[in-house]
Amino acid sequence: MSSVYVINGPNLNLLGLRRPEVYGTTTLADVEDLCREEAGKLGLDLEFLQSNHEGQLVDWVQEAGARVAAGECVGAVLNAGAYTHTSIALHDAIEGASLPVVEVHISNVFAREEFRHPSFISPVARGVVVGFGVRGYVLALRGLVDDSGRA
Ligand code: DQA
After folding, report:
1. Atom of ligand 1 nearest to the CA of 11
2. Pocket flag, ligand 1, residue 11 (CB < 6 Å)
3. Terminal-to-terminal C-alpha distance of the chain
4. Which terminus of the chain is less hemmed in, N or C, by CB atoms within 10 Å?
5. pLDDT in tens, the chain (151 residues)
6. So what's the pLDDT on residue 150?
7. Is 52 in the pocket of ligand 1 (CB under 6 A)?
């Protein structure tokens, strides 16, 4: 069975506790359940991951890219958290691994502080889902799979 990665960056382990007025009260474990249900419907195995460490995220992007190249994986949904706005390393990892990525943000980053507007991920992403709350992960999974036949 082919797999899909859902990779979460810094502070997303605090989902449900951190700024609930912005991110809601759903926990990351709840998001994993949502993703597992959707992946099941799409006939995919789910690798659901979170780290606060940039290098670990880079390692997972490279791992997912290698699995895509081996025909074992369709790509990744990535919420890189604040590294979205800072990480050239993640940009280069996605590009270098030729990993199909859908970038997700729970909040509408464009309606927030200006420092959240730029993204190093968007230029190397297949698509972006922003501002739909945690349901954005489900939309991103569907988009990734719909898009997976495209060259
Ligand atoms: C976020 C938006 C980022 O700006 C922020 O640093 C996060 C979460 C989101 O999902 O809305 O940690 O990626």
Report:
1. 12
2. yes
3. 21
4. C
5. 899 999 999 999 999 988 988 888 999 999 999 999 999 999 999 999 999 999 999 999 999 999 999 999 999 999 999 999 999 999 999 999 999 999 999 999 999 999 999 999 999 999 999 999 999 999 999 999 998 866 5
6. 65
7. no
Task: Give residue 12's identity as a one-letter amino acid code.
Answer: L
Ligand 1 contact via 109 beta carbon (within 6 Å)? yes
Residues 102/122, Cβ–Cβ less than 8 Å? no
Which of 77, 79, 117, 119 has the most ligand 1 atoms within 8 A of CB, as the residue to mutate? 79
Which residues have C-beta within 8 Å of that of residue 41, sequence separation ≥ 6? Answer: none
**Ligand 1 atom with minimal separation from the 80 CA:** 13
Q: Which long-range contacts (CB under 8 A, 24 or more apart) does 71-74 make?
A: 71/2, 72/2, 72/3, 73/2, 73/3, 73/4, 73/5, 74/2, 74/3, 74/4, 74/44, 74/100, 74/144, 74/145, 74/148
Q: Is 129 in the pocket of ligand 1 (CB under 6 A)?
A: no
pLDDT at 1: 80
Residue nearest to atom 7 of ligand 1 (CA): 81
Point out the residues that are catalytic: 23, 105
